[in-house]
Amino acid sequence: MKLNSRDAAAWIGKPPPDRPGTLLHGTDAMRVALKRQDLVTALIGPDGETDLRLVRLSPADLRRERTIVSDEMKARGFFPGPRALLIEEATAQHADPILAALKDWAPGDAHLVVTAGSLKPASALRKGFEGHRSAAAIAIYDDPPDRAEIEAALARAGLTQIAPDAMQALTALAHTVDPGDFRQVLEKVALYKHGDPAPLEAADIAACAPVSTDASLDEILGVVTDGKADRIGPLLSRLVAQGVTPVSLCIGAMRHFRTLHTAAADPGGAGSGIGRLRPPVYGPRRDALLRQAQSWGAERLGQALSLLVETDLTLRSSTRAPQMALMERTLIRLAMMGRR
């Protein structure tokens, strides 16, 4: 069976009993690995591997012994409970022994979990699972987790009281970090809120979100846009210590002011323009961008972009002037423009 996204989420979260196997395939190995981890845990429980109810086979094992998949599926474990047989990084070369074992499956045998990279529709492995009446083929796409997936992950972590701004912050974060980092943030949030009965708030997400150079860039650009020229020097020194270059800082500033200009120039007003941004922004950052776009207006933001383009060309030229000093002067000029 070929499952759509909704049915796939239900299958991975709670696999139907007495089903022979599941194929997970996709281009992003991290996303496939995370779904595989969720599926195996749902199949055999959190202690299944400790109880030796999970058997792992490598593609090399299949080449050495053609019947090993069937043999391991039908073996009986020492401990009671459901079993799973995992084969990772399978390719078209391994289709025959895998599909033969799938055909030979009987109730009580281990559930066969196969992961693979990108598989074409004509792939024998993919066609075998998609054409099977009770096995599942699930394509893992490079999309960030949706609201339902985030809520399910929070529920598994024991977090059920979620404020709307916290969900918005998590949705925005899911669009900016890779799946592994996002899962680590959720685990950190669960520890952070352990024993706290209050609902999860956006401030809790901000406290647990990964600290990066982008966060520091956002801070200095917020200071510049708000016209706080006296705070530019200390923040700039911190960015220099982190290894940020003048060119990357200029590019970040152009991106920030271009976002503001897009919002301010929207025919429906800055609020409508903020709502059209992709990826979407939520929470305190959305409020700050809206306030800045309304305060500056499209005309002054256009002037700011012209100044930044001029600075970028100067930084990329053969000038002998200190580049960070040039960038600092531009930021101060922008801050002074913001006071008008």
Automatic annotation (TrEMBL):
GO terms for molecular function: DNA binding; DNA-directed DNA polymerase activity. It comes from the Bacteria. One of its GO terms (biological process) is DNA-templated DNA replication. Keywords: DNA replication, DNA-directed DNA polymerase, Nucleotidyltransferase, Transferase. This is DNA-directed DNA polymerase. GO terms for cellular component: DNA polymerase III complex. Belongs to the DNA polymerase HolA subunit family. Residues 1-20 are annotated as: Disordered. It catalyses: DNA(n) + a 2'-deoxyribonucleoside 5'-triphosphate = DNA(n+1) + diphosphate. Its EC number is 2.7.7.7.
